[in-house]
Amino acid sequence: MATNEPQETTFLSTQYRHARQCLKEARFVALTWIVALVFCGGWIGLFGYIPPSDRPDVPPLVLGIPSWVVWGLFVPWLVLILVTWFFAAVILKDDEPLQPMPGFKEQLPYPDVEIGTGQAEYVIPGESGPVETGEGP
């Protein structure tokens, strides 16, 4: 049993790092989403919905588009595209190589399926032929 302890420690530490990275990514996405929602909603609420008695005859325009649309929708969306690129390049991390669970000799990425047993079978693209699903006659 003593030989499995280092493997379990390595496995658990890998899973802990993975969970910590996932939480970091989730916090970034949630915070970005909330900030964008508050900014866009606030801007559109303040400048897009003006009572008819307070509206100017000619609304302020930017390139022929009402300014509240440009500053409340288009510009934030362009900024969020840049934030997404930053997130993908800097914050988002690739998973570590797959490590087998403790107590198992090998963990395959695909289930061990016997051909012709009625279980779902993997089809290689470009190959033709029937796929047995185990349903029907």
Q: Mind explaining what this structure looks like?
A:
50% of the residues lie in helices and 3% in strands. With 137 residues, it is mainly alpha-helical. It has a domain at 4-91. Strand 1 and strand 2 (65-66) form a beta hairpin. It is elongated. The two termini are 49 Å apart.
Taking the alpha carbons of the first and last residues, their distance comes to: 49 Å
Given as residue ranges, the uncertain stretches (5+ residues, pLDDT < 50) are none
The counted number of beta strands is 2
Helix content bin? 40-55%
Class based on secondary structure composition and strand pairing: mainly alpha
User: Which descriptor suits the 3D outline?
Assistant: elongated
What descriptors fit this protein?
single chain; mainly alpha; 137 residues
What is the topological layout?
Layout: H1 4-47, E1 61-62, E2 65-66, H2 67-91
What's this entry about, in short?
This protein has a domain at 4-91. The chain is 50% helix and 3% strand. It is built from two helices and two strands; from the N terminus they run αββα.
